[in-house]
Amino acid sequence: xxxxxxxxxxxxxxxxxxxxxxxxxxGACHGEAATPAAEGAVTTVYxxxxxxxxxxxxxxAGEIGELDGVSSVQAVAATGQVTVVSAxxxxxxxxxxxxxxxxxELVGKA
Length: 110
Fold this sequence. Notes:
- It contains 2 helices and 5 strands, in the order ββαββαβ.
- It has helices at 54-65, 92-102, and strands at residues 6-9, 42-49, 70-76, 81-86, 105-109.
- A 5-stranded antiparallel sheet has the order 1-3-4-2-5.
- It is globular.
């Protein structure tokens, strides 16, 4: 199985994408286009335990993406890393709660 990358971009321009190979959900949650981070944005990389596929990536990205100030989330199951771009630093307990809600475990910052 190849490494998969999920990019969840917050905004009205979300588009459907081509299914990712090996995805348990057929790829319905994959492929939104990335946009450059806004000037002054904060990028934080977290380590999340338990992601195994594109569906897992989408669940984690979707929950974190709902936090105030988050502009994009990229989750990679193969590495367990989740990269979050936000307007300001996020409260780690809020990120932990979002990851828990998705059904996974936040290990901490990578």
